[in-house]
TrEMBL record:
This is FAD-dependent oxidoreductase. Pfam families: DAO, Rieske. Residues 412-500 form the Rieske domain. Residues 484-500 have a biased composition (Low complexity). Keywords: 2Fe-2S, Disulfide bond, Iron, Iron-sulfur, Metal-binding. One of its GO terms (molecular function) is monooxygenase activity. Transmembrane segments: none annotated. PROSITE patterns: RIESKE. GO terms for cellular component: cytoplasm; membrane. It comes from the Bacteria.
Length: 500
């Protein structure tokens, strides 16, 4: 029986923290307890700042607890693209920044004795359908990265790879145990964490309102919420939410020891799963924009089918999960001061936020402490980008506009509420009004107004994950309407219906 949960939080003992109960004053407020927030909070506290971190749910409960757990400067076949787009010097800085991120993670683990299955391993990117990786190998090596062309036998995957690039001495780890270790180190250094404390608004001042009522006043604030909440800095319109699916399974043979990712679509990213024994393997892929695919059961199946076809056996995953991250039009994260606000942000990690997020934490620490940081300009949060970026933004926002308009017109319900089957959800009719409904395994009916509370886009039902997803900017909601992921901070409205 497959467990519909990320393997990482399910196999970690996460520390617990109280919710905020009274107004607070602090030097630095960090909003969000994922990779970016916890690393930033720790870096600042270690540098002598007075830091308070608030997390809407539990620390590490969202994207950072749902990753593949690769900490690497090998981000698919990115370096040739970065060099073509931004020049060799920018590509070099990106590579150096992420190599430094890998080594910073290693040194924090060492310094604080974090028990998180830290393992050094090679990271491979391979082509099976003609993508030319020779230039990727050349550019990466020229930039000073530990990269070279490799033989397909080194992959350990039974795929017909035409080209392979190998990055040596990279890292995979148990992300939740790593985050638990960061949190313990942060509080031991004098930092404060409040869980179950959602920030609903942040005013220049800096004054943050929380859903529970108390207000937090700070000299500096860092918004580490995957995407800044509300409309802060306009990042909702400068990024796209990319969702991926993950499974943890046991192969009939020992799993490949290295980390692999395909350069050709559909993306398949693998790494060993030590918790599953020598045959344990994590596979992540089947990506799409949040809300673009509603039959997400098929996305999960495609991952286990892929493994089944490679190892000639029907394979049932132990765990399955999904999460999303934001992409930017120029492939570089936004880290620094948000335009028109004193708040600092870090977003748009392109699904490589374990290394990029560690780099971001160093930049944010140095900005607050008014120190130089060699990577700050590359990740500049205020940049508009080149003509290609602007064209991409225009196209993305046209898509959002169409989703907004067409989505409201297409709201056709699938029958009355008595048609909702156990375990099923979708749009239904309630007295002539279209509502969102889901019947849970205990037969309880949950109904919501299926309109996103961020900027009003129509929501789509995600059957594989049992969530309401917004294709416009990536907000996601539980069946009862509570917020799973921002940028929204407000639960869904519920129509007045009786439970059965
Ligand atoms: C499927 C998948 C696999 C990935 N694999 C890898 C990988 O192998 N290697 C890699 O480098 N990167 C990977 N990534 C990317 C990486 O996981 C992310 O870039 C990174 O985790 C982002 O960290 P974060 O701290 O910004 O976000 P999160 O981990 O989402 O943390 C943000 C936190 O803010 C909280 N929050 C939100 N709103 C509020 C609010 N209003 N008030 C208070 N708190 C709030 C949330 O609850 C959450 O805990 C992957 C991404 C995905 C989707
Ligand atoms: S996330 Fe922006 S409208 Fe839904």
């Amino acid at each position: 029986m497959t467990n519909s949960a990320s393997v990482w939080p399910a196999t970690a003992t996460m520390p617990r923290y109280d919710a905020i109960a009274a107004d607070r004053r602090t030097g630095v407020l960090v909003v969000g307890g994922g990779m970016v927030g916890l690393t930033t909070a720790l870096e600042l506290q270690l540098a002598g700042a007075d830091v308070l971190l608030v997390e809407a749910d539990r620390i590490g409960s969202r994207t950072s607890g749902h990753t593949t757990g690769k900490v690497t400067s090998q981000h698919g076949a990115i370096y040739a693209q970065l060099a073509d787009r931004h020049g060799l010097e920018a590509a070099r800085q990106y590579g150096m920044a992420n190599q430094a991120g890998v080594e910073r993670v290693a040194s924090l683990i060492d310094q604080f004795g974090i028990d998180c299955e830290f393992t050094r391993a090679p990271a491979f990117v391979y082509a099976t359908e003609g993508t030319d990786l020779r230039r990727e190998a050349e550019v990466a090596a020229e930039l000073g990265l530990p990269a070279h062309s490799a033989d397909s036998a080194e992959l350990g995957l039974p795929v017909k790879a035409t080209e392979v690039v190998r990055f040596d001495n990279q890292v995979h780890l148990h992300p939740s145990r790593y985050l638990a270790g960061l949190a313990a180190a942060f509080t031991a250094a004098g930092g404060t964490i409040f869980e179950h404390t959602r920030v609903t608004e942040i005013e220049d001042g800096i004054e943050a309102s929380t859903e529970r009522g108390p207000i937090i006043r700070a000299d500096h604030a860092v918004m580490a919420t995957l995407l800044p909440i509300g409309t802060l800095g306009g990042y909702f319109a400068r990024t796209r939410p990319q969702q991926s699916h993950g499974i943890a399974l046991r192969l009939p043979v020992p799993a490949p020891a290295g980390m692999t990712i395909s350069a050709d679509g559909p993306t398949r990213s693998t790494r060993p799963w030590p918790g599953g024994g020598p045959n344990g393997l994590i596979i992540v892929g089947s990506g799409h924009e949040v809300g673009d695919q509603t039959d997400t059961d098929a996305a999960y199946r495609s991952l286990s089918d892929w493994a089944g076809s490679l190892w000639n056996e029907r394979l049932e995953p132990d765990y399955r999960w999904s999460a999303h991250d934001y992409s930017t039009p120029d492939q570089l994260p936004y880290v620094g001061k948000a335009p028109g606000s004193p708040v600092l942000v870090a977003t748009g990690m392109h699904k490589w936020g374990l290394s990029n997020g560690t780099v971001a934490a160093g930049i944010l620490r140095d900005l607050i402490l008014q120190r130089d940081n060699e990577f700050h300009l590359l990740y500049d949060a205020g940049r508009i980008g080149d003509a290609h970026s602007v064209a991409t933004l225009v196209k993305d926002n046209l898509k959002v506009g169409k989703e907004f308009a067409a989505g409201h017109l297409r709201r056709l319900a699938g029958g009355g509420l008595d048609h909702v089957e156990v375990g099923q959800g979708g749009l239904y009719d309630l007295d002539g009004t279209t509502v969102g409904a889901y019947c849970d395994r205990d037969g309880r009916l949950h109904t919501v107004v299926p309109v996103c509370t961020h900027l009003g886009c129509p929501l789509r039902w995600n059957q594989g994950d049992a969530t309401w997803d917004c294709n416009c900017h990536g907000s996601r909601f539980n069946p009862d309407g509570t917020v799973l992921d921002g940028p929204t901070t407000t639960p869904l409205a519920t129509p007045d219906t009786a439970e059965r």
